[in-house]
Amino acid sequence: MLTLEGVQTYYGNIEALKGIDLEVQQGEIVTIIGANGAGKSTTLMTICGLPRAAEGRIRFEQYDITRMPTHEIVQLGIAQSPEGRRIFPRMTVLENLQMGASKSNPDFFEQDLAHVQELFPILKKRENQRGGTLSGGEQQMLAIARALMSRPRLLLLDEPSLGLAPLVVRQIFEVIEQINREDDVTVLLVEQNAFHALKLAHRGYVMVNGRITLSGAGDELLDMPEVRAAYLEGG
Q1: What angle do the packed helices 109-119 and 136-148 form, to 10 degrees?
Q2: pTM metric for this prediction
Q3: Which entry of 16, 32, 211, 218 is 20 to 30 Å from 46 by CA?
């Protein structure tokens, strides 16, 4: 479904991605784990065209999206819930969800709204509340729901558990599993919480300093001593 081949990305003169190869099959949950600054978020942003890959190729299904404008990438069926949530704080919850649906067929709006409110019931209760007044967990739910309103076939999730209480993290990971299983949404997940991510994912990649250093099934990576030492035992 998604393939990255030899992708290099720069911020000025700094090479953030150093020729990464990665693939996501339809129906999978795939995770990228790694330390801060490893290049995980840059990978998701490069897929969406901001920043643009300097070298290599990115394919989504039959389309080469390496040089495609971001709004056209979204129309193909890719949506991102970015790191830091980046909701519209002065808009209401409903208005944020309307923004997420702006590229979708309006005939499905009510159906899609009901669906995300079923996934995250608190959003229905907060429908007329400004996004900036929500708790951190509620804002994260809104960011994911906003992305889902575009009816994506591939959902890019960037650090959905960051800074959240364990109970909220559990709820969000349960929703990720549900939309993958029941709605056939393929997921590429960037996470520092390696244990939760690898338990959830079908496959995973380990990224270090802009390079993919390990890959394998989620449970295989969980059992690797080097992964456990670096990401699961405070190493």
Answers
A1: 150
A2: 0.92
A3: 218
